[in-house]
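Q: Hi! First time doing this. I have a protein sequence and I read that you can turn it into a structure. Is that right? Here it is:
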Amino acid sequence: AAFPSSPGLLRAARAQWMPPKRQEDSGGSSGSGRATRSSKRSVSEREAQPAPKRPRSDKGKSKQRSMDTTSERADEPAGDAPRRGNEAAASSSGGGSSHEPSAAQQRAEARQAALEAAEREALEMLDESSARARAGAPSWGGPSHALQGLLRKLGAGLDDLLPSASSHGRLKTILAGLKGPDESMQLASLTELCEVLSIGTEESMSSLSVDVFTPLLISLLRQEHNPDMMLLASRALCHLMDAIPSSSAAIVHFDGVPLFCERLLSIEYIDLAEQALHALEKLSQEHPLAVLRAGGMLAVLQYVDFFAMGVQRRAVATAANMCRGLPVECAHLVADSVPLLSNLLSHHDQKLLENVCLAFARLAEAFSYSAPQLEMLAAQGLLPNVLRLVGGMASPGQSDAPVAVSDATYTMLLRMLATLCHGSASLCKQLLQLDASSTLHDVLSADATASQGSGFAAAISRPHDQLYQVLALAHELLPPLPKGSPFSAGAARLLAPKRRSKRNPEGEAAPVADSSAGERTPTEREQALLDQPELVELYASRLFALFMHVHSGAVNASVRSKSLSCMAKVLHFYPAAGLRDMVRSHAIAAFLAPLITSQEHASALLALHMAEILMTKLPAVYTDKFLREGVFDAAGRLAAQAPPPAAAGTAAATAAA
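A: Yes, that's right. Below is the predicted 3D structure, encoded as structure tokens:
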């Protein structure tokens, strides 16, 4: 509720509790006297004899002052009644005016006494708040600025302007009922408190002391012998978090989270369990780590199948909230819940399934530089389930996926798989063995087919960010190029200057020497390809041609560069004995010639690196082809544009500085 401005508010407050002016009473009595005298004159003019005087103590019937003309035309005895009534009305008006100021004064004194009581109460609350601040105790709720404090001081006379002032007395009554020994009175007070909080806002509930009500409600939540009281107490705490969002910190402080977890795990009363789940969902939005430390992940997922579908969605959404920003040191808190989350990857509900994917994506991002934790996530069948979901991108109606998910979820799953491959060599090998290249082939072939209808100059049908994540996953399936190669030394920085990380993930340490030297020890990923060369052969047979098609049809620079880097990895890690058969059906020389003179420096560097690999592995085949297609000529023109060695050294020193 919006507060009025300070001047208008003070004028309304002054008008609310100031006593009425006496001039209005005297004015009303004088007007009544004038009306009585005019009535007397009209009657005396029509009558021959004046009416006999009556004693002033005889009041008569004042309501006959407004008699119609038929009664005024009556005979002499009948006319005495209106005259007596008029005289009695005049006398009563004159006599009442003498007592009216005293009644107004009594009302003013009563209002003043109420105002002083409200001021004393406000001062006591301010003293209590100051004492809490000096003691260093946290403060939840209460007035947040000076205007609300002024309104609370004037609350005894501003019931219509400030709802919190009128509800303050009601809250005091509720608080007294909650503290009472009678359980029936406590239940009635809890019911009334739920009604007040359900329609309240942070402004209207400014007089509610959160640090007084919260521990009291939590103590009522412990009354295991009375399920109705526990249900109403948990409902009141949920309404309290809705009305005053900062009260969630008080609930965490007074150890309310473990109680909600216990009520959810016991599942003795289904209504109480659902209300506890509702409370945990609200708490997990602001305090996910506190809920996770109290056992909230296992509590919301243990009996998720017993609830209705709407409650199941809420439970999984709560679990996804607890996975946000999780430190690596707290990985043991989710280890017991990973099997439960993995089982939900086959669920038929779309919203629930998307929340499960969100939970795994957040965990993978949190553990991206810890291979053991990533392998713990994938130990319960995560990789095949996610690959089945990703397969729905190419053919939603024909895949084995339980249900189709949104494009944003597909992109998130692709990013998660790339993170798993980047952080763990073991998981990368598992994905290759699960034939992840076939899944990517289905996705990219659908895009290539869509682009062939309008020519390769047109953009790929999928969004750029989603297509980039497809290529990023294909890029992470193969080991990184050695650091001594031109691609890793220069093009990597040009491709993604903002994605470099100072931390070296496990399994990604590449030797400094070039792979052609043959003196370095193969990494774990390279050794996996050496032990199973059919993995890279299958990868190349399914994806190499599609990389060329995607590069030709895409207009986004990052997508084009990522497709070229995938091609460079295939040429680098493919066995030399079978490379001639693999490239025989592809016009690679004609493809590389225009790229070397391209304005995109990353593309030019990648093209030069691929030409160097082909000349090293297949010199007899590509010497004539490069001469015929102009690859050597393009490389010579590019070398002619290079600065002299002295100038290049100066530029390098300047860039390093």
